[in-house]
From TrEMBL:
The keyword S-adenosyl-L-methionine does not apply. It comes from Limobrevibacterium gyesilva. Gene3D superfamilies: Alkaline Phosphatase, subunit A. Residues 269-347, 576-645, 781-860 form the PKD domain. Keywords: Hydrolase. This is PKD domain-containing protein. The keyword Hydrolase applies. InterPro entries: Alkaline_phosphatase_core_sf (IPR017850), Phosphoesterase (IPR007312), PKD_dom (IPR000601). GO terms for molecular function: phosphoric ester hydrolase activity.
Amino acid sequence: MAVPNYDHIVVVVMENHDYSQIIGNSQAPYINSLAASGALLTNYDAISHPSEPNYFAMYAGSTFGITDDNHYSEPDPTLDTILQGAGKTFTGYVEGGATSYDHNPWESFPEGFSVEKDFSTFPSNGSFSSLPNVSFVVPNVNDDMHNGTIQQGDTWLQSNLNSYVQWATNNNSLLVVVWDESDTDPSDHVAAILYGAHVMPGAYNTAYNHYNLLSTLLAANNLTGPRNAATATPIDVFSPGTGGTLAGQVQLSGATEGVALAAGTTVASFTDTNTADPAGGFNASISWGDGTSSAGGISGANGSFTVSGGHTYADEGSFLLSVAVTRTADNATITPTGAVTAAEADVLTPQAATITGTAQQALSNVTVATFTDSNSANAAGDFTASISWGDGSTSAGVVSGTNGTLAVSGSHTYASAGTDPVAVTLTDDTPGTAAATANSTAQIGGGPGALAGQVQLSGATEGVALASGTAIARFTDTNSSDTAAGFTASITWGDGTTTAGTVTRANKGSFLVSGGHTYADEGSFPLSVAVTRTADGTKITPTGTVVAAEADVLTPHAATITGTAGQALNNVTVATFTNGDTANPAGDFTASITWGDGTTSAGTVSGSDGSYSVTGSHTYTAAGTDAVAVSLTDDAPGTARATANSPAQIASGAGTLAGSVQLSSATEGSALASGTTIASFTDTNSSDTAAGFTASITWGDGTTTAGTVSDANGSFSVAGGHTYADEGSFPLSVAITRIADNTKITPTGTVVAAEADVLTGQATTITGTAGQALNNVTVATFTNSDTANPAGDFTASVTWGDGTTSAGTVSGSNGTYSVAGSHTYAVSGTDTVAVSLTDDAPGTAKATANSTAQIAAGGGGGGRAISSPTTGPVVLAATNGPLTVTNSGAITSTGGNVDGVDGPANATATVINFGSVSAAGVNGAGVYLQAGGSVTNSAGASISGDYGVEIAGAPGTVSNSGTISGTTDAVLFVNSGSNSVVVNPTAAFKGLVDGGSGANALELAGGTGSISGLSGGSGTVTENGSWSFASFQTVSVDTGGTWTLNGGNVPTIANNGTVNVSGSLDVSSAIDPTSSGLFQLTSDATLEVAAAIGSNARMTFLSPSELVIDNPLTFGSNVGSASYAGSTLQSFGAGDMIDLKQFGQTGAATQYDTSTGLLQISNGTQQHASLDFQTSSLGSGSFHVASDGSGGILVTLS
């Protein structure tokens, strides 16, 4: 690192001791303390012997070839002359003033004694700033250890230089202690210590000597040493980064009163052009601008730093903040400043008070309101209060209280009794902005008695008079001697009218105010009654609300509108209406007319006494009959509305057209001749001819053709030809246009194209071998009387005669079709193959051909059929024996470790069971396949043993429609392949079903069923008929399947397992929160879950499907908060639904965070639900909620 630009350097030269004689010597404690706290050069060597050439090397950069201590005269330059030439200073301080050429090197150069002073002139007591830039200190021969002891020299150094040592560290100065030469060390190894500002303490093993020292002394003054010192590297023990330029700015601009800025808050930042300076080389002091200061923490590197600190502003306001940053290496300081605005934190909440008193008697310092402040640190003195007493006078209030609870008190004298609204406003002092008003009530009694009252009237009906004696309000008077004649009352009805009220005495001290009024319109009206006691002016004004109900009952009456195309209808009556409320004027209603030709306009309402007419103006462009909808609507807040459906019969100047469709039936594939009558129409203008019309026939099957118009004298027909390619019901329309005036009618009807297919099946004989696949063989042929229908209009089903059915492939044309299929028969024999060919909907044609399959037995590995009781084991062999067995009888094995059916060790085998297979004893399996294969257990069939089915060695498949039971396991796969278990609704497993260690699949087939256990690891058997499935990575629910997962075992979909739902899956118990699997919902799938699922699980909506959540309030963790964690919902879009059960719709609202995908749902009963959507796969649109019809809500996206 660069040598710092020191203000002062003092070099003390000691004499004639080896490094090892000084460092670590207990006789030199002070010197060793300097070595421990400063920089100790552990590889520093002198240049020569004796002393004088070493002093010359330190002062002039050369020994000049001398080898003794005699007096010489040598030429400049030297340390002194180089410093003097740069305007710097040098002094040699010599203890005792005695001349010693060998220790005072400047005496041998031209400057001589001009630079020498006695050591007694060396500054003391802290006045070291007067020292020259560089000084040499030469003790006498006793104190420099030449003749004296090490302890004597150590004591002298501490006594004479320690004050400078302490001063130098904080004043950009340096002390160097060095020995001129060694005593006995052959390499001239001596001690050298540097102590002071910018020195990094430690031991440095770099090789240095006196030339390096001279180079360092001059480098500190930006100068280069003479002779050998010119190429000597300066000593490198200094802290990095001295001298860089600092620049900074305040970063903090905002805070909130009373809210602590955390200790790590960034307050300022600064840069340093010397990127080597560390954060530890700076200190910072933050003046917060509110009279407080604190130390700042500094972090950063590479020339970029931040200053952080913590503070709390006690009050709002703008504060001038400054940060003093000092680099300790050179005391360079910057002080960036900036303004911090401490925002208002006070949120005032008013609490009204009830003030009681008596007219003419002073209220002294009474509490008129209280307030709470969210900023509990603000003092009462920070607020002012104003009190509006409600009688036209205002005064200041007195604020008291602490810890966020404040009270306002005031004094006042009311002139008269009554109830007065007292508005108490509390305001934060400037620059605060917080303010709140409490609306308190002053109940002021009179000397004779206190009054209190309330409005009695709450309801009326528009247009219906309230009788003059209707009770409007009631009030009480504590002075029982007051009479009704002593009061006046004024009723303000809330609709702009005020009338006098009649006061009557109800009983002792209780009075009624009555009056009569008619509300002209419906609505909600604020009603007040001013009651005044004439004796003392005491007044109360009870208030209330009167709801005037809707009285309008509108009855529509259609009108018949007649006109001519192209001629304006001007202000014609289009409908009339009667109203049950005869008082409402026509101006209270608006009308809208939909003319039936695609246009709408406003109507004009007229009439009175409950009878109204609606008129409008319009011009029809074409003749015909149009449906005119006329709506009459009461003005807001009225709700009355009625619609009259009037017909507009618009004639043409040339004649009126009317028509109907005549064609009603056809046959698929059979052509309607071109002259077939399709429709007929009439024209009142008998002079019109067929040539004056055009016709277009829309057949309803996607085709449109031109029609031919014929006949005359006002009666016409439209003819055309067409062939319906398929059966069905088709909407037919005929657009007829008169060319002269573009008058158009479009009569419509329905054509039923009848079924024309008559299918005839031809059976065939199918031959094959058991165990060998039949691939795409023709299983039947069919002929069709309708030769136009393509093969694609038909579907085929093949029932193979061995209990299996598959779809067939239909091919052919011109009424001749073939059906092909693929199948493998397990056993030999003759099977009846039923092949059905069916026309697609709405076609009804169907035929069945009963073909014959003649299946021969194969060689080794063929099939075996068992139909009678058989003693096991039945052994399947890869050679000279069957690999397939079909059992419709009973296979029974007895004794220990004896299987019912044994598969070979070197080939897969197939077991088809229609009967029963059982094994007895420990380790006996009903079916044991050693090398993989498949086991099909039909409905009503059973397989049992210690192990029901065990498949080892290679992958296997178990399809169960009957019962498989095992004392140890119902099904066990002992292989690492991909095994599968197909569960049909009639199946029962008694015992554990273990999928093994591979990627295994569990398939829940079509139909309705339930299972009671599913886990990612081991499962347990709980009781007879209770199932537990373990180690399946994929669970699939087939289309048409409706399955419920229940029972005691909490299911876990772990290890990134997958649940594919094509049908319906109801998980009625909780899914383990540790689940990390994927639920995939395909078209029309439904997944119902009861409770929480862990946040690692995912649910993907592959096509329109539904997720049902029984307990949405516990679906995930931290429900209703921003830290919600739950299953990720992927690819949710239009058509998908999420049903939140037991979640009320009233007040339901959604809040969606587009950045996180979090949807928060709440309702009026404070229920909360949360859903986590994957934003990258979410469909477009916004979320909507609606009732699911059963106490929950549906969430959709559109």
